[in-house]
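Researcher: Quick test of sequence recovery. Tokens follow.
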């Protein structure tokens, strides 16, 4: 199965990627994907807590991913007042 990854803010800078296709096994959860990406992309290791959105909706780590899902990886953001 393939999913489409989107990297936001500092993750985009750290990885040098805006987006990429990624192959996953059937039954992979959002949490498992995030752990796999942290192993495969060392630049993500120091990013801290990363929020995951699947098809434009934030999700829990237990969410099972489907072929063709769009996965947004969003690092902590701060700013404003």
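Model:
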């Amino acid at each position: 199965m393939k999913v489409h990854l989107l990297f936001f803010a500092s993750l985009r800078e750290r990885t040098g990627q805006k987006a990429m296709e990624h192959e996953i096994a059937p039954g992979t959860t959002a949490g498992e994907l995030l752990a796999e990406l942290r192993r495969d992309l060392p630049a993500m290791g120091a990013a801290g807590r990363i929020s995951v959105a699947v098809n434009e909706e934030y999700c829990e780590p237990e969410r099972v991913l489907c072929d063709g899902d769009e996965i947004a990886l969003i690092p902590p953001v701060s700013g404003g007042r």
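The radius of gyration is 12 Å.
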